Amino acid sequence: MTFRQNMQGAKLVVKALEAEGVDTVFGYPGGAIMPLYDALLGSRLRHVLVRHEQAAALAADAYGRVTGRPGVCLATSGPGATNLITGIANAAMDSVPMVAITGQVASPLMGTDAFQEVDIYGISMPLVKHSFLPRNVDDLPRVISEAFTIARSGRPGPVLIDLPKDIALQSTAEPLRWEPSRPDPMHRPEAKPLSQARDMIMRSRRPVLYVGGGIRIARACQELRAFANATGIPVVTTLQGIGAVSGNARLNLGMLGMHGTKAANYAVHDCDLLIAIGARFDDRVTGKLAEFAPEAKVIHIDGDPAEVGKLKAVDCSITGDIKVALNFLHVQPHINEWVETCLQNKIDYAWRYDAPGDFVYAPAFIRQLSNYAGDDTIIACDVGQHQMWVAQHYQFSTPEHHLSSGGLGTMGYGLPAAIGACLAKPEARVICVSGDGSIMMNIQELATIKRYSLPVKVVLFDNQRLGMVRQWQELFFQERYSEVDLSDNPDFAAVANAFGMPSMTVSNRLEVMPAIERLINDDGPLFVHVLIDPQANVWPLVPPGKCNAQMMEAKVI
Amino acid sequence: MKFTLRVQMNNTEGVLERVLGRLRQRNFNICSLAADSSKCNSFMSARITVESERPMESALKQIGKLYDVTEVQLSEHETNNGYQHYEPAKTLEVCVSV
Ligand SMILES: Cc1ncc(C[n+]2csc(CCOP(=O)(O)OP(=O)(O)O)c2C)c(N)n1
Question: How far is the CA of A437 from the centre of ligand 1 (A)?
Answer without folding.
Answer: 6
